[in-house]
Amino acid sequence: MKRVFAFVLILAATFSLVACGTSSEFDVEEETQIVVGLEAAYAPFNWATPETNDFTVEIDGQPGMYADGFDVVMAQEIADELGLELVIRAIEWDGLIPALLAGEIDLIIAGMSPTPERAETVAFTDEYYRSEQVMVVNAEGDYADATSLDDFNGARVVAQLGTLQDDLIDQITGVNHLEALNDYPTLTTALMNGAADAFVAELPVAQGVVQSNPEQFSIVSFADGQGFEVSDEDVVVSIALRQEDVTLLGLINDILATISTETRNAYMEAALGRQPQS
């Protein structure tokens, strides 16, 4: 689902951080807090806000700023079930796995896909959300009525740097694959100012973008066989944790098993309603 990690590029740095990180197992009975890392810039999964509500958690090290979103709600539910205080740290995407391996955070709950490459260095829980890959286009543009990838032949398509979505672009015949951008606000700007014809996103993120810009953007979804070829791991997200945290992995999977698909979808719908409007 979200984001194929630029694994080869950071492999050496990751192993370096492992060497100076923690190797002892997380002890739920001894710990009082659980530290979760996320970007706080990937609505509706997670975002930063100066406003508080019943779902926000203050971002560690950023007084007056709070994290909200689907990931935060899931993190809070897990922390509550474990009997631990939830601490949220905002970390750039490429820094999340290194921070986990270095012991700076205990979990990554950030819309991360459980890819085989990542699984070489971290462990993954069962899925906590399932979605699909779509395109965001200008509502009045040339691609608003597209129904298949073939309709994007010759289009200028972009995605976020270091993600699954950026890799998927190459499945489009004749595409003009633009240089990846750092975040979704930048992608949105590129589409708005005409620098790109479309960008690839997972459905909840695309819904959030369109909800914030209903007159400007629309979503192109694809029928079976007309869209991206993806594996199961590309349409699910899981929680990442250190491989030695076997007990914690089992406890979190037990908690996830009690949260129904209907409840998760309700959490996501509510997050879409709360996310900041541009």
- From the N-terminal CA to the C-terminal CA, the straight-line distance is 25 Å
Q: Residue ranges: pLDDT <50 for 5 or more in a row? A: 3-20
- What's the CATH architecture of the largest domain? 3-Layer(aba) Sandwich
**DSSP E strands, number:** 14
Read across the widest sheet, the strand sequence of neighbours is 6-1-7-14-8
**SS-based class:** alpha/beta
**Biggest sheet details:** 5 strands, mixed
Overall number of domains: 2
Q: Compute the CA-based radius of gyration.
A: 19 Å
Within CATH, the superfamily of the largest domain carries the name: Periplasmic binding protein-like II
Share of helix among residues? Answer: 25-40%
User: What's the CATH first level of the largest domain?
Assistant: Alpha Beta
Q: Topology as H/E string?
A: HEEEEEHEHEHEEEHEHEHEEHH
The whole-number mean of residue pLDDT values reads: 91
Total helices: the number is 9
The proportion of strand residues reads 15-25%
Summary keywords:
alpha/beta; D-Maltodextrin-Binding Protein, domain 2; 2 domains; 23% strand; globular; disordered N terminus
Descriptive account of the structure:
The protein is α/β, with parallel strands linked by helices. The protein has two domains: 7-130 and 236-274, 3-Layer(aba) Sandwich (D-Maltodextrin-Binding Protein, domain 2), CATH 3.40.190; 133-232, 3-Layer(aba) Sandwich (D-Maltodextrin-Binding Protein, domain 2), CATH 3.40.190. 31% of the residues lie in helices and 23% in strands. The chain is built from nine helices and 14 strands. It has a five-stranded mixed beta sheet with strand order 6-1-7-14-8. The longest helix has 14 residues, at 7-20. It is globular and about 60 Å long. 43% of the residues are buried.
